[in-house]
User: Which sequence fits this backbone?
C-alpha cells in the first residue's frame, strides 16, 4: 500500500471521528458547536479537499458549506460575515460552471498563475471596496471595521481566483483565514477560530499541491510541443 493511500485512509478516519464528535457536541445543551457550524465546517473540509485535488465536485460541497455559514452568521447578527458567505455561494455556483465547462477542450481551464494586470485590478478592487465598506461595518457595530472590510474584500478576490483556477488564490486564503482567526478570537468565537485555522492549514496544502499540478502541466505541454 503506497503512502498516498495510507494518508487517504487516515484522513477519512480522522474526518469520521471529527464529524461524529462535532455532531455529538452540537446536540448537547452547553454545546461548543452549533449544528449549522458543524455542517458548514464538515462540508467545507470536503470542499477544500476536493478543490486541492482539482475536483469539480468540491463546488457543490462549498455551496452547502457557505449556505450553512450564511444562516449561522445571520442568526448571530454578524451580517457582514453572512453577506460574505452569500457571495461565496454565488461564486461557488460560477466556479462549478466554469470548472465543468473547463473540462472541455474548447473551454480549457487549467491551473495557472494570474496575469499581472488581473492582479492589479483585483488589488485596486480590494482597496476601493474596503474603503467603501469600512463605514458600513462601523455603522453595523463591528468592533474591528477596518480588518472586517479588508478581509471581506480580500476573501471575495480569493474566491474569484479559486473559481478561475489561479494559483494565487491559495496564498490569499492563507492570509484571509489567518486574519479571520484573529478576528474571531477577538470577538470570542473560539470554536469558529479553531475551524478557520484548519481551513488555513488546508490552504497551505492546496497551495503546495496546485504548484505541483502547474509544474506537471508545464512538463506535459513541453513534451507535447516537442512531439509535434
Assistant:
Amino acid at each position: 500500500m503506497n503512502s498516498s493511500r495510507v494518508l487517504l485512509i487516515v484522513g477519512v478516519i480522522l474526518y469520521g471521528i471529527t464529524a461524529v464528535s462535532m455532531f455529538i457536541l452540537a446536540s448537547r445543551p452547553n454545546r461548543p458547536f452549533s449544528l449549522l457550524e458543524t455542517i458548514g465546517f464538515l462540508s467545507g473540509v470536503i470542499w477544500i479537499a476536493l478543490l486541492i485535488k482539482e475536483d469539480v465536485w468540491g463546488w457543490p460541497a462549498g455551496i452547502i458549506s457557505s449556505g450553512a455559514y450564511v444562516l449561522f452568521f445571520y442568526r448571530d447578527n454578524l451580517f457582514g460575515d453572512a453577506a460574505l458567505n452569500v457571495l461565496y455561494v454565488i461564486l461557488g455556483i460560477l466556479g462549478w460552471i466554469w470548472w465543468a465547462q473547463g473540462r472541455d477542450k474548447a473551454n480549457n481551464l487549467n491551473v495557472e498563475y494570474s496575469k499581472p494586470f488581473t492582479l492589479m485590478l483585483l488589488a485596486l478592487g480590494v482597496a476601493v471596496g474596503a474603503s467603501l465598506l469600512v463605514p458600513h461595518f462601523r455603522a453595523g457595530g463591528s468592533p474591528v471595521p477596518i480588518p472586517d472590510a479588508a478581509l471581506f474584500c480580500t476573501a471575495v478576490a480569493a474566491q474569484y481566483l479559486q473559481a478561475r483556477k489561479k494559483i494565487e488564490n491559495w496564498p490569499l486564503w492563507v492570509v484571509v483565514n489567518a486574519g479571520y482567526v484573529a478576528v474571531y478570537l477577538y470577538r470570542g468565537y473560539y470554536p469558529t477560530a479553531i475551524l478557520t485555522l484548519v481551513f488555513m492549514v488546508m490552504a497551505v496544502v492546496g497551495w503546495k499541491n496546485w504548484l505541483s499540478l502547474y509544474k506537471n502541466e508545464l512538463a506535459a505541454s513541453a513534451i507535447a510541443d516537442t512531439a509535434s
Remarks:
- The first helix runs from residue 3 to 26.
- The mean pLDDT is 86.
- DSSP finds eight helices and no strands in the chain.
